[in-house]
Every structure is written in structure tokens, then in C-alpha cells.
Amino acid sequence: MDNLYLSIAIVIAAISLIALIKTNQLRKKDLKILNELKKAKEALSKSVLYHGTSDIPNYLFFMQKLMKVDRKFSQFHVSLIKLGKTPVFDSIESNQDTLTQLFKEVGKACQPFALALHDSDYMVMAFVTHDTGSDQQEAEAKQKEILDKLPKQVWVNNTQVPIDYAISSMSLTGQSSLYGIDKVQRRLTFSMKYALESQTGTFFHNEKLYQAEMYRKHVLLKLMNSISFNPDDFYLVFQPIFKSSDIDNPKRYEALIRWRNTKNLGPKAFMPMIEDKPELHSELTKIVINQIYSMLKIKLDAHEKLKPIHMNISAKLLEDESLLAYLKKVIRDTPSIAAFITFELTEGSDLKLSDNAINTLRKMSNLGFSFAIDDFGKGENGNELLSSRYFNAVKIDKTFITHVQDKAAQAPRLDSVIKTAQQSRKTVIVEGVENRFQYEYMKRYPNIYIQGYFASVPLTMNEFLSQEQDAA
């Protein structure tokens, strides 16, 4: 019996030993797998949170670090730093050693809570405190402190070169509605263009300025949509132009563009938005031309008498060959209508016509179109423009008559400009006649034209057509 128990004990011991050996083997195998998983995780983390194989954290690393902060009582100062107002590094890969060294120097000098290289042009930095009483003055001082601590030279291709910086920054609390790294990034990127333009190379975020720009972009997007896909969103009103001796019978009209939009924005608000967008400006001008031509064609087909219609045009559009081609296409069936369309070129302060623009003026004149100098008297090139044979009319800027507000008022500058314009033997129009004193002042010049709300407000298309039918 004892032998039996001994045999069982030996078997159990053997099984236990085998199980122990197997367990150790499995543990070693599991540990190996766990180590491999850990290495893979670290490698993945490295590739996601760092630039390539470098030790430089990227923007995602920066975001993750800030997201771990207890937001409730925290104050954040975040800066976007441009590494040289003029680009210094063409890429991260080819300048990895230099950028690594720069990153270390910046971290040591400034000691921010979070620091990352956004790309080869930008670095992003954040400071976090529990002092929620920071004001803009303190934040701007922080900006200057950062700028003073940044390295002023770097090694690029074995050459030491100077480096300047531009910094856009903003401060916010963890409870702010602006908290969110995507919101912060958009604002810092917006502010950077002002930092680059400033003498100090710094700019502290202005939320009102940012919101105004976002609103402008929103309106511009809708405006682009209307111009490109819904030209019927635009319509014309017509402001009569009278002889100063007779304000009962209009002799000419100026076509003024209006845009149907939910914000009820007028041309003074939306036209400046497309001044630096020649394609949009050109397309909108074509919409106006087409509507004027269509209206004149209706009147001509009805055997009604036509009167000249003025419209504004940017001198820059005269550089656009497509405008001339469009005009030829529009009047192809009824070329006589061209004689009743006058383009007003805004003189401004620096209107100078290039050889290409003058060539376009010549070709448009040959088609029958007329030209006027708008805002005459404001610029320095008035007399030079008056000598041009392509301008048939002069419209004197309204600023010359605005201060005539009573019966005794005198306007010597207006008198001088009128005299200069009359000597050119061109049609003279004074705009901005808004009250009776201004009208009475202009009556001393019986052979010139006036335009303004005193004589008539702009007329809708129906009012314009009705008035012209009654006059006929």
C-alpha cells in the first residue's frame, strides 16, 4: 500500500514539475509577446507623435499633452512661432539635426509646458498656469519674453545664419468657449499674417478682428456663389442725372448694382470684397453689362427713345482681354446700343492707364462705347486724363460739395474743379447733390449735370421704365 501511495506521489510530483516547466515557458513566451507589443506600441507612438524617426514632438503630441491638463482652473498661453519671417528650413528631413538642436535650445530657454514642431516653418508652444487673472498686457509681455529667449542664429548646411521670428499668441482659460486646439490653431494662423506685417514680429489675437474676417469670408463665399451660379441674385437700380436747370426730366441714368442677400448688404459692403479678385469682378461686371444691354434692347424694340446709361468699371478690367470679347458678343445683333453705354472709370488717387488699357479703350470706343472719369478731382492724374480723347464726360467727386450746408456757403475748390473740367469741353456731372442749398449752388452752372438724392433717389427697373414711358 505504501508503495502505491509513493507511486501516486511521484506521478503527481512529475505532473506538477511538467506543469511548472510549461507555465514558465508560457510566461517567457507571454513576456516576449508583451515586450514585442510594447515595442510595437512605442514604435507606433513614435511614428504618430514625433516627426519621422526624430525625437522632435509633432502637433499631435502637443494636442495630447494639453488635453491631459485639468481645464477647470487653468490658464493657457499658446503661441505659434514662425521660424524665420523668410523661410529658413526647406524641410524637416533635410534639416533634422539643426531642428533637433533648435528644439532643444528653445525648450531649455523658454521651458514651456508643451512644445512641438508643427512643420519646417512653425513651432507651437504653450504655458499653463492656475492663475486665471492674466490680462492682455501680461500676455503681450510673455510674448516679448519668448521672443527675447529664442536663439538668434542656427546652423544650416554647415553655415551659421541669422534667424528672426514672428509670433502670434492668445490666452484663454480652460472654461473658455474658444478652448479646443482646432479653434486655437485657426486663430493663431489668422493672427500670424498680422505678426509678419508688424515691426516687432508679434501679434496678440484679437477676437473681434477674427470674427469680422470670418464674416467677410462667409459673405464672400455667398457672393461667389451668386456670381458663378445665380446671376439673377443681382439687379439694377437707376439713379437719374439731370441738367442743373431742369430736374424734372432726366437726361441720363447711372445703373447701380444691388444684391439680394439675407444680410441686406449694399454695394459699399460687398464690392470691396472682390476688388482683389479679378475673375469675380470681371464676371460681375459682365452681369451688369448684360442687364443694361437687355433693358436697352427692350426699349429699342418698343421704338422708345434711348438715353445714356452709365455704369462703373474698374480700370484693372481693361487689362482683361475677355471683357472686350464679351462686349463684342453682347452687341453683335444690335451694335447701335453701344452708343448708349458709358463706362465710368474711378480716378481715385493713382489711376494710371497702361498701354494695354489704353488699347482696350481705343477698341471699345471704336465699338461705340463712351467713357467718363469718375471721382474726378481726388487724384493727381486728372489733367492728364482730361487730355485723353477717349473720355467724353467727367463726374466730379461728391466730397467737393458736401460742406455746402447753408445759403451763404461757398465752395471755391468745387468751382475750380468745375472750371478745369469745363475747359476740357467734356460733359460735366457733379454728384452728391443731397440738399436744397447744394442744388441752388449748382444752378449757377446751367450747362452741367447733377446727380444726387435731392433730385431723385435711385429708381427700380419698373419705376425707370414707367418714367421713361411717361416722358415719351
Please name the defining characteristics of this protein.
472 residues, alpha/beta, Alpha-Beta Plaits, TIM Barrel, eight-stranded mixed beta barrel, five-stranded mixed beta sheet, 15 strands, 45% helix, 19% strand
Provide an overview of this structure.
With 472 residues, the protein is α/β, with parallel strands linked by helices. An eight-stranded mixed β-barrel has the order 8-9-10-11-12-13-14-15. Strands 2-3-1-6-7 form a five-stranded mixed sheet, with helices on both faces. The protein is elongated. InterPro entries: Cyclic-di-GMP_PDE-like, EAL_dom, EAL_sf. Pfam families: EAL. Keywords: Membrane, Transmembrane, Transmembrane helix. This is EAL domain-containing protein.
Gist?
By secondary structure, this protein is of the alpha/beta class.
